[in-house]
Structures are given as structure tokens and as C-alpha cells.
Amino acid sequence: MNKLISIIVCLSLAFSIKAQTISGTLSAMPNQRIKFGTFSGLTSGIKDSTITDQNGIFHFKISVTQPGIGYLVSAENKPYFLILDKQENIQLKGESLTFPETMRTLQGQQNQAFIKYASEHTRREQGLSAWTYLQKMYEQDSLFNSQKITKIAIETETQRIKDEDENFIKNLGSKSYVAWYLPTRRLVSDVSTIARYRPDEIAATISAFRKLNYADERLHSSGILRDAIESHFWLLENSGKSIDQVFTEMKLSIDSMFIHLTKDEKKLNEITNYLFDLLERHSLFQASEYLALKVLNEVSCTINHDLAKQLETYRAMKKGNIAPNIQFNTRLFSKPNHSGQSPQTLSDLTTPYTLVVFGANWCPKCREELPEIAKLYAKWKNKGLEVVFVSLDENEQDFKSFTSSFPFISLCDLKKWKSPIVESYYVFGTPTLFLLDKKREIILRPNSVKQMDAWVDWYLIQGNKPPVSSKIR
Q1: How does pLDDT run across 112-126, given as a tens digit for each residue?
Q2: Can you tell me the distance from the alpha carbon of 466 to that of 442, in angstroms, rounded to the nearest whole number?
Q3: For strand 80-84 and strand 385-391, is the pairing parallel, antiparallel, or unpaired?
Q4: Does residue 443 contact residue 356 with C-beta atoms inside 8 Å?
């Protein structure tokens, strides 16, 4: 009986996964290898390959479990994108994948609609940008703003173009993948144009991004998940609002993304990891801190160990927290002779500010940044900023050769990531920097020497009042 049930299940699965064919003729590509790939979340991968015959004819037979975007790529590595759906086969004809303008879709209604819309939408966007420019001119320039008939004509044509774009998608039918993909692709691709030429549409565009289901399988198989995340937060950052308003908006967007993501742990981990890195690279630390704390406080999902360790830094080491004291009685300790101090701990330092830097000789970025800190040290020290370097080196000679020319305190216990100091500061990467005040309160987590030097210039040299940590948590 169990065997019969197993056979029935296998047959059911076999019939549910329908094969789709992709075939075509590429007249300028005889006897050449063509690869077929798909997207999964933030990654893509080649699934099959074939070699065209002497006439450039090729054929793929693929198993489609769900609709999405696929691509064909030849030796030039320029992908030609396709709509994948078990409901239809695809037949192409052209000269080369490298020159999409030569390609025609002979079979596959969704792909025909995809190509047609891609061409028409680009031209509509160009037209909209031109009409928007004229509309502003006729509204704001005294030489033109009295021309009411022209202004009405511009508004009418602008609306006609928008309606034409919307009607194209409506006529596709709501059940097809292309009907979902095209407006989503449009949302992502129009961001820079809207920010530059149609700022009145920014609020509606941000609202559309927040309505996206970031756990939707259609999005994860579309190849535009990465672009959707980046475009969403790029628009927030470039919306023309104050930095405080930008961070408020980013928190709202993070909240909207989590509505669906908390129901899918795999997607939550993947997107959180990417978004956290994106925010850190753009120095949007208030947003990355908010993201970290939100994920760590989410009890309905499981975070993988590496990501949890990375995010935990923001809970334990966020701005306003008191950094752990550091004992200087480590295996290796280098105190410059000119310092005039004999500190035993971090708290013994008398300067108003201390920059604690974690790095190592084996870290390429550290070998760039630490010498830069050494060059700036005299300027910083003169303005009341001390530097303490905590090395994660495991070899005594590596530590000594790396730090021998540093004019600031350097220490190392040769325990790398297992160092009690490293663990107490929740360091998961190098270089990692913490700026502390005299009470060891964390007031900044610089992402580079350049940012740290800018902070010194703005607050310590130009005399602007440093921000109060309670206002920036």
C-alpha cells in the first residue's frame, strides 16, 4: 500500500512539472555554445548548455516549476532575457544574442508582450520626461505661463502617455507572469528618472515599493530582487528630505518588508544580510542599527548563526552604550615613548575621545587604513583624540612588523577571533572602528578612516557641537 502511494505521489509530481521548450535560429552563431540560466533570490546560475548546429539552430527542454525570468548567454556573456512559464514554449529567430535588436520572438505570447513593452515603455519614458520639462517651463516661466491652451495640451498628452502604459499591462490579463513582472520591472527601472525629473511621484513610488511582497516567489525568480532593494532605499536616500526624515522613512520601509519576510526564514536571512550590508556601505548606520535590532527581536523566525553574530553587534555595541573596558596587560603591548602616559586600561586614557580600531596584518583593508590613521594621528591627538589598535594577529612577528611604525597604542593577545577583547566588542570583521567619549560611551561607528577624519574636521577643528548620543540611538 505504501509503495502504491509513493508511486502515485511520484507520478503526480512528474505531471505537475511541465517541460517548456526554448528553441531558435541564430544565423550569426553557428557551432557556438549557448548557456541557459535562471534566478533564485539574489543569485543566478547556469542550468543547461548546448551547441548550435551549422545553421545556428539550438534547442533547450527545461522543467518549469514556477514562472520566472531566464536568460540565454553566449561567449560574449551578454544575457538575453526570457519569460519562463510552463504554459508556453518559446521560439526565437535572429542573428546573435549579443545584438537583441536583431532578435524576434516567433512563438511565446508573454515574451512577445515582454519585448514589445520594453521597447515602447522606454520611448514613453523619454516622451514623459520631455513633456514634464515643458510643463514646468509653462507653469514657472512668466514668458509661457499665460498660455493656458498649451498648458492643457501638455497635461492631456502627459496623461495619455501614462494611460497608454497602464492599458498595455491591463490588457495582458492579471494571471500571466508578464502582467506582474512588467509593472514591477517598471517600478524598479524608473526610480532614477522619477527622482530627477518627476519628484512629485516620489511619494507614490515609495508607497509602491512598500507594497511589494519581498517573500513573493515571483520576485525571487525575477532577477530584479537585488535591484528592487537597492532602488527602494536609493530613492529614500535621495528623496530630498532631511537626514532625520530619511531614517524615519527607512524604518517604515523595513517594517513593511518584514510583514511577509518573517513567514519565510530563508528569504528573511538572505534579504536581511544583503540589506544590512547595503546600509552599512552607504553609512546609513541608524537604519542598519534599526534593521539589526528588529531582526534580533523577531521571535517568530530563526536567524542563521553568522548573521545573528553580525547583527548582535548593534544590540550590544549601539550608539549610547558603554563600551567594555580594555585591559592593556595583554601578551603584546606597544606604547609609544612620546605618549607620556602609562595606561593600564582603556579608562586610564585622559583624552576626551578615543578611537578603538580592530584589525590585523593579514587584513588587506587594514594594511591600507592603519597607515592612513598613523599619518593623521598627530592632527587627531592634537585635538584630543587618542587611538588604540587591537590586533587580531596570531603571529608575534606579524604583529611587531605591522605595528612598529604606529605612533599610537597597539596590543595583541594572539588569539584572533577568540580574543576576549574581540568577543566583548562583538567584532565579526576587520577593520572595525568605535569612537568613544571620555566615559567610554559609543558616539560613532565609523566605516572608514575618511569618515573618521571628516568627523574630526567638523566637530574638533571647526568647533561644531558633537551630537548627543541619546538623540541618535
Answers
A1: 999 998 888 889 888
A2: 12
A3: unpaired
A4: no
Q: Do domains 2-107 and 332-471 have the same CATH topology?
A: no
SS3 (DSSP) at 242: coil
Closest CA to 398 of 425, 372, 422, 366: 366
Domain boundaries, the chain: 2-107, 109-172, 173-316, 332-471
CA atoms lying within 13 Å on the CB side of residue 104: 5
Q: What is the mean pLDDT of residues 225-243?
A: 95
- Give the three cell numbers for residue 100: 537583441
Contact 334, 343 (CB under 8 A): no
Q: Which residues, 6+ apart, have CB-to-CB distance to 219 below 8 Å?
A: 184, 212, 213, 225, 228
Q: How far is CA 417 from CA 147, 286, 393, in A?
A: 71, 26, 9
Radius of gyration of the chain, Cα coordinates, nearest whole angstrom: 29
- Report the DSSP beta bridge partners of residue 46: 37
Fold of 332-471: Glutaredoxin (3.40.30)
- Cα–Cα distance between 261 and 225 in angstroms, integer? 13
Q: How many whole angstroms separate alpha carbon 21 and alpha carbon 50?
A: 13
Q: Helix, strand or coil for residue 277?
A: helix
Task: CATH number for 2-107: choose from 2.60.40.1120, 2.30.30.40, 1.10.569.10, 2.60.120.260.
Answer: 2.60.40.1120
pLDDT digits (tens, 9 = 90+) for 240-294: 999 889 999 999 999 999 999 988 989 999 999 999 989 888 878 789 888 988 8
